């Protein structure tokens, strides 16, 4: 899928080298098709790395995708330049009058805080409420998944005895559900978090389906109306992301374990091997195909009489 991003965006050079089909606004405007419009609320601290990770996965199916990155107005990011945010990101007030085919809400390293203590919680609630009418399908990742479960379904999180960090096995519960079409019975995925959610509360909730569970707890949850997809781990992670996080935690002096099932022989001096890449691409492809493209109205972009943001 060709993804439409600004020519100047740093992620473009990396994606070009990987032969990911990236298209700029000038070329996109010459194609007589209805592109999908995807909004990405990037809450991760190292935003440029997350941009590449998500764009790589969104650029792997046949349709054109317009990407808009969203940042919080009520939070000042410390690990990315102000100029990068101003050039490549919109705020909620910029986009709230528009309709989008899909929305991705990323994780954030703030799971130690109660949701109400997060300084942008009220703004995030407004975005999640807005998404009910303005977005066809929403994918929530890690802390974003926990926030969605709490806001939409009243399911809270709980603190783990130690950080869940590593690559874990997960089992698919129902292959008939389109999100996991083509998945192996058992697949691997990275996790990196200090909190989790209750299997029982997911099972008992009348609006939710626990689609995949495993060694690290519930992994894939989907609402029965197929509006919300919650992913408690990080299938989008690069091969070395867990290693980078481990080194960061060690430098901070944290009492942290080596990520499980990640380094060969559990030796942090050896190069990790990516064992989740194929399912990462498959998950995002299934989401875009079955829950966005096949469900969104063709006239989605004409529900209102205004243009999409100029960053698309």
In words, what does this structure look like?
With 312 residues, this protein is an alpha/beta fold. It has one domain: Rossmann fold, CATH 3.40.50.880. It is 30% helix and 24% strand. Strands 1, 2, 3, 4, 5, 6, 7, 8, 9, 10, 11 and 12 form a 12-stranded mixed sheet that branches. α1 links the parallel β1 and β2. It is globular, with a radius of gyration of 19 Å. The C terminus is likely disordered.
Q: Sheet with the most strands?
A: 12 strands, mixed
Characterize the overall form: globular
Binned, the helix content reads 25-40%
CATH topology: Rossmann fold
Mean pLDDT across every amino acid position? 88
N/C terminus separation: 15 Å
Number of strands: 12
**Rg computed from alpha carbons, rounded to a whole number of angstroms:** 19 Å
User: Could you give me the name of the CATH homologous superfamily?
Assistant: Class I glutamine amidotransferase (GATase) domain
Which architecture name does CATH use?
3-Layer(aba) Sandwich
Name of the level-1 CATH class: Alpha Beta
> Which residues sit in consecutive blocks of at least 5 with pLDDT less than 50?
27-32, 302-312
Specify the structural class: alpha/beta
* Strand coverage percent: 15-25%
